[in-house]
């Protein structure tokens, strides 16, 4: 839960000069910044969250849909509300190592995720991408995953640009339920 916004100067004593800025504290982001739940190695099952998620219930794992070789899951640290990922069950790091079936289902799940997001939330556009390797920005480079980030006109305002904070209007569990209900059938 987000703490209340404050600009009370007494909170600034000893940590810098008081200013006119309000603060929106998001301490839950510290888990992401510090790498909580990141695998300790590149080995399957060695702390890899993408390997452990499928063993959970859809609700507990934030899984939107399951396929034969790929599943769709909400991002625990979303860039925007509804930020999903299409993830192969198999622990594989490189896109070129996917089988033909995995490649086809990954593409299909990306299309279906886009359709579900358009239906459920009126997404007007998308950022799609795979960050291949740590130097390309992959937070969990050992297990390939494709991001599907819904976008709306005006969704980038002063909060993320200046405040480096994203305000999400819905709990992840509610978003997962909404998208699972809107997921197109094969």
Give a verbal description of the structure.
The chain is α+β, with helices and mostly antiparallel strands and about 190 residues long. The chain has one domain (about 50-180): HIT-like (HIT family, subunit A). The protein contains 6 helices and 5 strands. The chain has a 5-stranded antiparallel β-sheet with strand order 1-2-3-5-4. α4 crosses α6. The chain starts with about 30 loop residues before the first helix and ends with a helix. The relative contact order is 0.17. The model is unreliable at about 1-15 (pLDDT under 50).
Summarize the structure.
The chain is an alpha+beta fold and 186 residues long. The protein has helices spanning 29-33, 49-52, 58-61, 100-121, 158-161, 172-182, and strands at 63-66, 70-74, 84-88, 125-129, 146-151.
Topology, element by element:
Elements: H1 29-33, H2 49-52, H3 58-61, E1 63-66, E2 70-74, E3 84-88, H4 100-121, E4 125-129, E5 146-151, H5 158-161, H6 172-182
Antiparallel strand pairs: 1-2, 2-3, 3-5, 4-5
Helix pairs in contact: 4-6
Helix content: 25-40%
What CATH first level would be assigned? Alpha Beta
Distance from first to last alpha carbon: 36 Å
Mean pLDDT: 81
Evaluate the radius of gyration: 18 Å
Largest sheet: 5 strands, antiparallel
